[in-house]
């Protein structure tokens, strides 16, 4: 009843078409019979005023009818050509759409493989990072430990310098003190004799004004006595032969060993880095298993086969439709041409008839042009009776097919009611079960699938493949990085074995500290150094004698004063000045040793403790830095793995196996059937 109610309009159209098809030929035969009996026109009538009005009325009606026919046949020709112009590409788009959809499904394995092949990007980045790992670790160890190491080496160099400089100054101290004592012993008798003679001369009554210088001459005695200073022979004996070690070479070797840590790291880590590169190759094989085990091709293969069958089965039907469309276009063009011919006959008949009537003197007279016009009108009438019913049948057939497709299929396709119809069991035969042919899950339907695909969901979500294949389990990072992490975590290397101070060098410093350098009384040296070599200034006394010489009247006394002055000057220049130079030299050594001695044991002890501590701590700290650097490197590389595997999951779920082409194919099918075929029909 619903179908009858729906098709009632088409039934009415069919009745009208059938009535027209029967009535027009019958009316034509009746008209022919009537004409043959000369009962339907063809006779001259007596001219009356009503005849002219009747002719004008018929001419106006026929002109209006001809105008309507002209407009209608123009629309018919344009529409027929539009149908032809849209049918051909529309029919060609059907296999193209099926082929495109099949191609998309066929490209799913290639897309999965392409995603897997992108592992080359993080792999190259990790290999690049591995190439710089060993040197980076070595440089980091060197950078973090160089302050401590360089400070220990600098302190060791200072102690070595102290040792060498102390031995040098002790030798100067001992030698200078001995030289000064010997010089004093030599100077003492000469100075005593010179004092006796000067005092005697100044005490001579003949010496005028000499009493003022007598006191200075009587105090002419030796000053500092370096025979009283403490001996440093014991210290020199303890330091004899030191330094036995080449501290400069020792420090150079320690510095070189420490600075070679980056190269040593490259050498020690070469094997583990090669193992990690090999492990990356094995990881690439594991990643390839994602593509090998991905289940989507098992679901898309039946769909592709169904699309191939649909494409093959559609070709004969499409060829038939194309052939029918060709016939339809030919028939429509021929019938429209006949209608145009009828129109030409009408226009020609009216023109000749009107022209013939205008040339007759008596409107009731016979005239050949009017007769010809009447025949043209009769030809048009005959063609209309013969062919118009065929045109009506063609129009009805086209309208019946196009209208039903537009109303039953297209309208429900637009509002998606057609998917509900297909999903309802029993509406389609089992051979047309699209849910089974598209390999959808049993609890799914075409309506929900179309909506999901239209919104951009992937086949993974539409087919709910996570029920049968746990993608997250296959994309867990530890599955691919466990061995990589283990190799990095198990790696150890001693990179901080630096020998700063050898045993002989340590013994030298310990001997230096025990030598008794700090027990020497340097104050005695400084106390004696504060005393002059001679208590009375020889240059001052000599100048006094020279002044007195000028004051003497007695030439003999004057000559003796001058001789004594010259003798004092000679003693000052030859003996006293050399002793003063030795005293200055002694003062430098005493000053250095006096500053060093109080802190000697403490500094040597600190230096020995620092070098021992640095030597002991360097391997431990280097190992800690190595673990930190490897841990940081491991976390960085694991982020590459994690980012890649997350990207793989997203691509496989959303982009690689996109369901949108299925919705697009259905929309294209609607456009082809409805907009390009049914709508023009």
TrEMBL record:
Q: Where in the cell is it found?
A: Cell projection, Microvillus membrane
Q: Name one GO molecular function term.
A: cholesterol binding
Read off the Pfam families from this record.
Answer: Prominin
* Keyword check for Nucleus: no
Q: Which InterPro entries match?
A: Prominin
List the transmembrane segments: 6-36, 57-79, 329-355, 376-401
Q: Which UniProt keywords apply?
A: Glycoprotein, Membrane, Transmembrane, Transmembrane helix
Q: Which domain of life is it from?
A: Eukaryota
Q: Name one GO cellular component term.
A: prominosome
* Topology class, membrane: Multi-pass membrane protein
Per the record, the similarity remark reads:
Belongs to the prominin family.
List the protein's name. Answer: PROM2 protein
